[in-house]
Design goal:
33% of the residues lie in helices and 16% in strands. The model is unreliable at 10-16 (pLDDT under 50). The chain is of the alpha/beta class. α13 (403-414) crosses α14. The radius of gyration is 23 Å and the shape is globular. The chain has helices at 3-12, 135-142, 156-167, 199-212, 225-237, 251-257, 287-292, 298-309, 318-322, 333-336, 341-356, 361-382, 403-414, 419-426, 428-433, 480-485, and strands at 39-41, 45-53, 62-70, 73-79, 89-92, 96-100, 102-104, 145-149, 175-177, 216-219, 241-244, 261-262, 313-316, 387-389, 451-455, 468-473, 476-479. β10 (216-219), α5 (225-237) and β11 form a beta-alpha-beta unit. The strands form 3 sheets. Strands 1, 2, 3, 4, 5, 6, 15, 16 and 17 form a 9-stranded mixed beta sheet that branches. It has a 5-stranded parallel beta sheet with strand order 10-11-12-13-14. Strands 7-8-9 form a 3-stranded parallel beta sheet. Bound molecules: zinc ion. Zinc ion binds next to loops.
Amino acid sequence: MTRRMLVAAAALVIPSPLAAAPILAPPPPHFGPGVQPFVSVAPGQIALTHVRVIDGTGAVPVEDATILIDGPKIAAVQPAAAAIAPGYRVIDGSGETVLPGIVGMHNHMFYVARPNLDASGHSEDLRLLPQMTFSAPRLYLANGVTTMRTTGSVEPYADINVKAAIDSGKMVGPHMDVTAPYLEGPGSPFIQMHELRDAAEARATVAFWADQGATSFKAYMHITRAELKAAIDEVHRRHLKITGHLCSVTYPEAAALGIDNLEHGFFVNTQFDPGKQPDACSEGTGTPTLVKMTPGSPEANALIKLLIDHHVAVTSTLPVFEQLVPMHAPLQPRAMAVLTPQARNDYLYLRNLVAERGSSERLKTFAVAYKNDLGLERQFVAAGGLLLAGPDPTGNGGVIPGFGDQREIELLVEAGFTSVEAIRIATLNGATYLGLQDRIGSIAPGKDADLMVVKGNPAEKIADIENVVTVFKDGTGFDSAKLIDSVKGRYGEY
Ligand SMILES: [Zn+2]
């Protein structure tokens, strides 16, 4: 082969994609002044003694155990009576439970602002998504989230830079799977989103953001089938994954196109919505389909079989839908305290409206849809489907980073899952989807020491999952209360 032939052959080779930073970067050699104040347990050899262990696999809790942490890894889980090798710092965890860190799969970094909102629920036309770069990472970590997917970004460079800052020890926060900007078609209600023009642009957009460091993708409500197909092809060419909050494309269509994951349980499948046109979002945005699709019905069985056959995971985001249930659980005081005064006002205005309009046709219909969704999520899991968990901190402002992740687990228990099943959905299932189940998502020797320590026993009383004391990330313990204190009155502003 001549030199000229070699050059010509090389030109035909498609350049291999740049390698993005991994979701689980190795822990930084030291923490900067922005992180140090939140460290309550320095890394090293640590023995957490007399703890209850809920290991994330769905197994029954182990009582009175010792967890040995050696540097960034879990070294052993042993009975409290077993000898502890010399050199370990002993921390008595009597009365506490250790769980794997939460793997949050719908964890935005922004807040939803409604300009000039009043008590009647009216606000001016623009719905803005201000970035919560300061408060969100702290709130996630404080509440036990050690790995999270951003699941749609409006400030992608900020999210990519935050990940880099966290990974290098400059900022405090969880491991991040950064999602590229929403892949949206024409007709978006959000002025911060780009509207794709065609399939070629969908592919080019994926390629661009993958090169910038995005490790996941999300299709949005107005994307067309052709655009989604092109996006999926490019995402998979790069060995990454793509999820969707869909409307214009139905769940069966998306499954057939090869999507990896669907957001919002079964709430946004439009396949039976009246007036649904191909490639266009329906007026009902999925509610009519969900009302029709009672768990165990032939339609439900067919859909669930299709999703499982195509290996499509489903993300449950119950906290954001709970906001439309009249007289739903009020925000706990600690969560109210992190809101700005304006965000608190707006949340209470919108919460009051739902309470007031509880008997309206719309909310009565929604109540049927909500109930069906809970049943379908259970049916999906029972049939072998991979259910993931995330809060989706949007809606009326009542879903807050971290607190919302805990609420999601509580709502899964209300839906009928056992506590340890719900915890597995929010930990090991997320890790499995990300392909990181050998590193995170459950408590076992050799796995990363990404753990949450809570007071009480969530296996018996799931609300105990809110009582976080310490969150370990790669073997370093972070002080939950201190992190929350540091953002008091800030969520909604920055
Ligand atoms: Zn979302």
